[in-house]
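Encode chain A's predicted structure.
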Amino acid sequence: MAPRPAFARGLVAKIRDELTSGSSVSSAFAAEGPSVNATAYDALDEALEAVAGTGPEYDPFGTGFCLTNHVPMVAEALCALGRPDAVRPRVNRYRKYLSDAPAPRGEIVGSQWREALGHLDRVGDWVVFFETQLDDAPWDEVINRWVPRLAPASYAAGTHGVLRVAHAVRGIGQQETRLRRRELAEALGYWAAAYETLPEARGASAGLLASEAFPLVEQLELRDRRDWMLFTEPLAKATSMPSFIGVADLVDVHLDPSAFLADLTEAIAALLVTNAAEVRFSRGIVHAFTAGSATRMMLPYLTPESTARSLRYGWQVAAAFYSGLIVAPAAVDVEAPVESIDELVDEAIACPDEHGIKITEACLREYRVNPKPVYLAAARACTRDLAETGLKLA
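Encoded structure for chain A:
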């Protein structure tokens, strides 16, 4: 009897990973890429100490338009890149803009947590709630209790809820410290308080890889994908289309998780190469990659159930960005940039927009697993566009 297609794809992906794990490209990355050790992560604790008492969002222009506090995420990403020297300058640039953390308003008790989901004004209550959770159980037990519950809200806070948690998990996975436990509580609290799901109707999986599923995702009319000011505007339109409710079921999240993520991110990277300079602002589309691949940072610590849930909704978010923002076809036969990996990291650090660091770290993270030049090209394309069109805080 012929094997099921999903089994065959998973087996081929595993064989591919084995064959490429010792390739010269991968070895070159190891030789010239970032080298991370425990001391590199000391800078994370210093950054978390510097921003202690600040809230998950801030209003840099005093207009009532709030942005997500990226400092903990960027600090962790720089440590993962082996560039702890760049953490303090980035913290110093942003610290003066950050707002104080909201004070708790009331205790979240027992099953009442469901009623508190999605109430951003209760973020202080959620942080206290998760501090208690982390006092009562090991941190990996806590995330495996809550990732399945919160994963449907991977779009929450413009994807920054799940992203902050993923960075916090990878940081505490390096070493458990008081400050990193506090950061995990704050990250989980933000994700829960900002809880917002995208439309879905659960059904049978189509059993596809992400690369096979993207062409089946309906996109907005081209004018709607181009004519917007905030990237949340076309996403709201895209995810309200009737066809979107079935998007999450297009893929098979029970394949080998690493192979699933490699396929997903390679497909997104090819889209970033051609769309970074084509969309209104690449600051929006980079989240298709960073949020879609967030599971990778948590993968060593997640149970199979948590992994499957995280992959499902990471894919759903990536598909939403594809539907609402992508305007140009994916790149094919991409060649590696002439710049070295160290030079790409230097460009990301020099980029005034924090998303330059985050997309570069995410691309290099996936490049380690799946050494294709498209990841390097995507990092360069996005960083250079962000340097021109991204957020610039003095």
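The longest strand covers residues 57-58.
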